[in-house]
Every structure is written in structure tokens, then in C-alpha cells.
Amino acid sequence: MTSALPDPNQLLTVDEFCAAARVSKNTFYKWRQIPGAAPVARKLPNGSLRILVADYLMWLDGRRSDAA
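== Putative DNA-binding transcriptional regulator AlpA ==
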């Protein structure tokens, strides 16, 4: 059995990020207003945002905490 690791160079849409993180788009945009609360996003020339998988994974790792 093989499991495919995500390509760290892949760009996620906001919808894809929200589905992976299991948050609403509204939550994502609120997080973007708080420095460091959301992963780094890149704005494309057409104005849409993309999140690099590597940035998403780094952001996710930064939210890890020991279980209580």
C-alpha cells in the first residue's frame, strides 16, 4: 500500500485550503486579518489567492500542541 504525500510546490485554492483545514471561508478571511493566524497566501494577477502546500504544512505544524 502506498500513500501519496502532497506535492509541497502545489498551490491550493482558498476552497481547497478550507476543505483541508475544515474551516469556513469566512474563518479563513478572519484569520488573514490577524498577523500569523493564517498561512501565507499568494495573490495571483487575477486577484485570487493561493496557498503553497509547503506553507500550509508549516502553518499546520506551528499549531501543534501537546494533548492535555
